[in-house]
Amino acid sequence: MNLAWILLFLPLVVAAVNQLVLRKSAVVPWVSTGSAVASLLLSFLLIGKTGGPTPIHWASIGDFHLDIGIQLDKLSTGMMLVVTGVGALVHIFSLAYMHDDEGKARYFTGLSFFMFSMTGIVLANNFIMTFIFWELVGFSSYLLIGHWYQKESAADAAKKAFLCNRVGDFGFMIGILMLWGITGALSFAGMKSGLTTFITANPTIWIGVLSAAVLCIFCGAVGKSAQVPLHVWLPDAMEGPTPVSALIHAATMVAAGVYMLFRVQVSLGTEIFHQLPASDVIAWTGGITALLAALMATQQDDIKRVLAYSTLSQLGYMVMAVGLVAGEAGMFHLFTHAWFKALLFLGSGAVIFACHHEQDIWKMGGLIKKMPITTATFALGCAALIAVPGTSGFFSKELILDAAHEAHSPLFWVAAFVAVLTPFYMTRLFVVAFLGKHRSHGADHAHEVGPLMWGPLVLLALLAVISGYSFIAGFSPAPPEHHGNGFQIGMVAGISLAALVIGVTAGFVLYNGKDKDPLSIPLFRNRFYFDSIYDNVLVRFFQDTTAAIINFFDEFLINGLLVGGLSRATASTGNLFRQLQSGSLQGYAFAFGLGVILVIYFTVFLQS
Amino acid sequence: MPSPLFWLFSLIMLIGGCAVIAFRNPVSSALSVVACFAGLAGLFVGLNAYFIGIIQILVYTGAVMVLFLFIIMLLDLKDEQKRAKSLAPLLAGVGLSIAFIIQLIGVLSKSPDKIAPALNAETLGAAAADFTKGGKIATALTDGRLPDVHLIGHTLFTQYNLPFQILGVLLLVATVGVVVLSKKTEEKKTEDRR
Amino acid sequence: MATLNDYLFVSGMLFTIGLAGVVIRRNIIIVFMCLELMLSAANLSLVAFSRFNTVKGLPDYNGQMLVFFVITVAAAEVAVGLAIIIALYRARQTIHTDELTSLKG
């Protein structure tokens, strides 16, 4: 059981040693990578374990106790496998990708710190601990997105990500407190009994109260998993190094929201959520996110942004599944998605690396001849993402569509439409970037990346294909019960296949051999104007308002009244008394005489 | 009812004092001070303080005021006529004076009045017992006279010897100080000349 | 005979005149003279107290001692003060107080 503690604190120790002792030494990347691989091994060793080590007592306030504890169960060990697996591969990939970067040591320290934070979220056995690590994840993500902080866009993106997360975290904190108030327990294990007591005590209002609490907690997930309307940070976060995008913004951190939601569902009892109106809100938020993100993805030119929007869309699927109280499907999709999306991001990283940091797909093209391994693995990743039958994505997406079909007719059609859009934009991406002719100097001179890079790609490609089958899926956080090897031909599968065929065909026909985008839909290209609305309305309004308030405080209260007022009061008092210093002898004599008269008056006349 | 001499000398003194302020010419002012001090000396004499009255004339009117006159002439001061009169100091001074006099009257009307104790042959003769028999003081006292100078000398050299010596040192210091003050300006002048 | 209050009143009047002179006049020498008037007014009070407070049938000579010292110190003060006035005049070419405003803040 001590293994779990080691698993949790190893990355922290490594990060601390890197930062404090090794600093800019060349061994930092290797130490971090070693620790990531060790974490992966530890995760393997922990598979199947349940329970958890004795919690470390942290603080007590009266009867209220805070523990740092670890909860081991199917969910957390399976999730750890995803986190450490993708983490280790990303570390290895980064060794090559970041080889020439000056801030390499800082980067790997950040990665280790992120691993620590993410491990903490996954292993946490109570909500306070989750929240702490939740914030740490936000912080390390800030560090990593802003890795190239010299670039203004990167610094802004890091800030944006952090702020968006903060907005969600605010609701999350309220939700945690509400849940605590409802159940009287912070640890996941004690929640269910507390909730039962609450329901029997308040049979009429518990649905509303619990819904509010769940929605507040969902706010945290909206921030972290980048759901509409807080999704705007994720595409911008692509300013970070590509492996970071793969690790944080595809596989792990953004999945933390889904994981946490599912953890709450499991802790409170899944069946209760059927009665909660909050579930509908969650499901619809997920569905809308999936739809909007897919639409936006169709018009993006930056290879990483396409992938980012596709991530948003897939996260929408997962959240939708959780909202439909089919969390297993969502977690299974999270499991498979982690592999193939990490693969896609790392593949795009390899492409970007090979094309000398060119990210515009319209300036790539013809890479299939230059980079066969990358292209092959990327194609497998695409296949998994667009749910080609037989790949992992097919199984998991099918489960979600099934769940939607069983529960909610409108959401099913939304999901189905997204299933059309996904193959469409992925085909577009693949056709434009890898097929055809090269359209720029960088793409012309591209060459296959080294084994340190294609190694992880191949491994991930393998996983992207096979992780849907039960011998791998058994390791997943929440293995689906009725998932089959192969697929049942039903209405859902039929629609799904039809969507795939339509999407791919449309994408191929539209984009094959084109040198520029034949479609131009400003609404999608401009991302539904979310960013401009935020910039112009929210940011400007709030910024201007707060700036005015702060300016008031700063200029008027502090500068004007406190500092300036004091100095002006001193100066004017001084001036007042300066008038007394007339320099006139007669004036002084007069004052002196007046004083004498007053003294006589006070001592003689007032006394008697 | 005060004696006419008291009124005479008081008037001389107060009119002299007012004249000091009223005259524009410093020399006239200085001479008014002399007149004022002469009246004052008369009052002293009326109070049986003959010695004080004498040194008031000798020191003040004789030495100090002559010194003033010397200085006035040395500086060759002109009248203040050219200068624009400003009303404010005048008002301030008059107001201050009125306030002062009101307070003075207030204080004096409340304090108990006192008539001068008699100084006649009887009382003086009784006082002679304290002094050496046959000495000048005792003899004069028994004769019914007030040996003012002798008594002052007696008090000065018996009870106030140390302050008297210190006063001598003070005068010496003042002399040296005056010399230094004058000398410094001389040095400055010579430096300027160079 | 005049009573003690008569003397004190006259003395107070003289002092008031001196004070008024200090406030009104701008010529520093006359201001100085007015200071002497004020000192003398104090002397008059002292001598009056001395006369009106007999000790063993004689005037209280302690008061006259104080007057003696005051006159002596005043003489020294006049000497030094006039020397300062001369130095001042040499430095500033004026002895009018409204032109001597270096103390103005």
Task: Explain how this protein is built.
The complex is a heterotrimer of chains A (608), B (194) and C (105). Chain A is mainly alpha-helical and 608 residues long. Chain A is 73% helix and 2% strand. Chain A has a two-stranded antiparallel sheet. The model of chain A is unreliable at 483-487 (pLDDT under 50). Chain B is extended. Chain B is mostly helical. Chain B has a domain at 1-77: Up-down Bundle (Four Helix Bundle (Hemerythrin (Met), subunit A)). Chain C is mainly alpha-helical. Chain C has a two-stranded antiparallel ribbon. The longest helix of chain C has 32 residues, at 61-92. The mean pLDDT of chain C is 88. Chains B and C meet through helix 1, helix 2, helix 3, helix 4 and helix 5 of B and helix 1, helix 2, strand 2 and helix 3 of C.
| Major sheet size, sense and barrel closure of chain C | 2 strands, antiparallel
Oligomer: heterotrimer
What proportion of the residues of chain C is helical, as a percent range?
over 70%
CATH architecture of chain C: Orthogonal Bundle
**Number of E-type strands of chain C:** 2
- Helix vs. strand class of chain C: mainly alpha
Distance between the termini of chain A: 93 Å
Widest sheet, order of strands of chain A? 1-2
Features:
heterotrimer, B: 194 residues, mainly alpha, Four Helix Bundle (Hemerythrin (Met), subunit A), 8 helices, 0% strand, C: 105 residues, Helix Hairpins, 2 strands, elongated
Topology of this protein?
The complex is a heterotrimer of chains A (608), B (194) and C (105).
Chain A: H1 2-22, H2 28-46, E1 56-61, E2 64-68, H3 74-97, H4 104-123, H5 127-145, H6 152-183, H7 191-201, H8 206-224, H9 233-236, H10 242-251, H11 253-268, H12 277-297, H13 303-323, H14 327-354, H15 367-370, H16 372-385, H17 392-407, H18 409-434, H19 441-444, H20 451-466, H21 470-473, H22 491-511, H23 522-525, H24 530-580, H25 585-605
Antiparallel strand pairs in A: 1-2
Helix pairs in contact in A: 1-2, 1-4, 2-3, 2-4, 3-4, 3-10, 3-14, 3-20, 4-5, 5-6, 6-8, 8-11, 8-12, 10-14, 11-13, 11-14, 12-13, 12-18, 13-14, 13-17, 13-18, 14-16, 14-17, 14-20, 16-18, 16-20, 17-18, 18-22
Chain B: H1 4-22, H2 26-46, H3 50-75, H4 87-110, H5 121-127, H6 136-142, H7 148-158, H8 161-193
Chain C: H1 4-24, H2 28-52, E1 54-55, E2 58-59, H3 61-92
Helix pairs in contact in C: 1-2, 2-3
